[in-house]
Amino acid sequence: MNTTDGYDYVVVGGGSAGCVLAARLTEDPDVTVLLLEAGPDHAGIDSLDTPGTWASLLGGAYDWGYHFTANPLLDGREVPIPRGRVLGGSSSINAMLWYRGHASDYDAWETAGAKGWNYASLLPYFRRAEDWEGGATAERGAGGPIRITTPPNPHPVAAGLLEAAAELDMTVLDDCNGPDIEGAALANLNIDDGHRGSTARAYLDPVLARPNLTVRTGATVTELVFAGTRCTGVRYRSHGVVEVRAHAETLLCAGAIASPHLLLLAGIGDLEHLGEHGVTVRADLPGVGRNLQDHPLLMGVNFRSRRPLGPVRDNGGGAILNWRSDPALDLPDLHAFIVQGPHATPEVTKRYDVAGDVFAISPGLMRSRSVGRLSLRSADPEVAPDIDPRYLSDPRDLDALVSGLDYIFDLAGTAALRGLIDTPAAPDRRLDRAEAEAFVRASCSTFFHVGGTCAMGVGPDAVVDPELRVYGFDRLRVVDASVIPILPSCNTNAPVIALAERAAALIRGHERTPS
Ligand SMILES: Cc1cc2nc3c(=O)[nH]c(=O)nc-3n(C[C@H](O)[C@H](O)[C@H](O)COP(=O)(O)OP(=O)(O)OC[C@H]3O[C@@H](n4cnc5c(N)ncnc54)[C@H](O)[C@@H]3O)c2cc1C
């Protein structure tokens, strides 16, 4: 084994959060940072850079290729759960929607025990990250690393969704990232002049020349190294095994699947579970891997277009919609986006014809109540963990998705969409309750928003404290989607980036958790 000299900070994983930390921490020229990324560099790879073809990346060379556990409530299907395996991580393969949800989503973190984490404390970091085309306002930022734009020339189906929503008396929002979120809006996209704005491109590329930053790609961390309760660094695989020391801290940014996996492999987790796999227990921290949350997404409600759809624009979507599955709810729980092409699981594709000029409206549940778990299958780091979001295990989630499916047919019945739709394609008509349930089970997939597996908080299931330090250990933090205690009602890239911005400020001592 090689042992290299140390760095002040070793960042494990160059994804959404890891690139932010590497860039912000090295603003201090006296601090050295090593960023370790298992995947390759993103530079020069056209398929990552081109916004319209992101869906073709799924299951490919830059995806870890995980699957959720077979779910009997989804007809036994093992839903794929893509995660980026390349510099930029999931932000290099994602759909580029920049949506921050509602202020109360973040206030709920503090209520859940994550002291100091609320909308007011995160807003400066959302603003700091943004370069919003509309310029700076009280809510939006300008001049930050991530360029945020709306579709300059929305695809006709995106424009049609906005008109359809207006016909149903929904608000058409000027800005989906303003204080009001209910209604339809043009999407905000992290697309900069036709290029994907991943964190690798926006945060890391501009600072690569800093002498205090070292980036190693093709470097898979297999082990955390400890001296007692102090994390002293990591071992990683890259043409042999290398051990590297972190003089100040090891920062786990490997994402909501790999970060808890590395903790479990290090013997940090539920005592009994670790014992079942012969892992020597370092700390009984039962919350590791628990509290796994994701937003279920129906892939999708498909319609045959009256006219050829033409080339894909923007990210292949362009408009979004938020509404309530039940008028008694305070806030929207359903969120849909338009797809400028077919959007269906293999099972749905087998049953219905979605070939040709077919577009989709895909509804997801942004306040899913089902909570799952990540656990070890083996003590071998090469064996992927068991990842189970337990979709639909709370029956209210099924009700909400059935309601969402039905509402898409209300939209399809508007004059605006009737002008675009020849006929429903999948399903091929509005369904009754039993049929709709069956369609939900066959079409339910992931919105790609896995989080919560190393939740911050104070209770017995909390894994990190509100400064993101792993309970019971020195010099070890988790900074990525894992620490989110309750998923916000939105896509998760912007929240993770704001979280990492705030974490960088905490680590640098520029921000304090209130006592
Ligand atoms: C297909 C897809 C579409 C999505 N669409 C959107 C969207 O449109 N809008 C949105 O807001 N969100 C979207 N998301 C979600 C969002 O991108 C993620 O929530 C966010 O990127 C998570 O950031 P992270 O830093 O927690 O993890 P990641 O960005 O996944 O970063 C983890 C990094 O760690 C690396 N890594 C893992 N294990 C190791 C190891 N052992 N050693 C070294 N490196 C390791 C990985 O390769 C990766 O680079 C999407 C996600 C996917 C996958």
Automatic annotation (TrEMBL):
<keyword id="KW-0274">FAD</keyword>
<dbReference type="InterPro" id="IPR000172">
    <property type="entry name" value="GMC_OxRdtase_N"/>
</dbReference>
<dbReference type="Pfam" id="PF00732">
    <property type="entry name" value="GMC_oxred_N"/>
</dbReference>
<dbReference type="InterPro" id="IPR007867">
    <property type="entry name" value="GMC_OxRtase_C"/>
</dbReference>
<protein>
    <submittedName>
        <fullName>GMC family oxidoreductase N-terminal domain-containing protein</fullName>
    </submittedName>
</protein>
<keyword id="KW-0285">Flavoprotein</keyword>
<dbReference type="Pfam" id="PF05199">
    <property type="entry name" value="GMC_oxred_C"/>
</dbReference>
<comment type="similarity">
    <text>Belongs to the GMC oxidoreductase family.</text>
</comment>
<dbReference type="InterPro" id="IPR012132">
    <property type="entry name" value="GMC_OxRdtase"/>
</dbReference>
<feature type="domain" description="Glucose-methanol-choline oxidoreductase N-terminal">
    <location>
        <begin position="84"/>
        <end position="107"/>
    </location>
</feature>
<dbReference type="InterPro" id="IPR036188">
    <property type="entry name" value="FAD/NAD-bd_sf"/>
</dbReference>
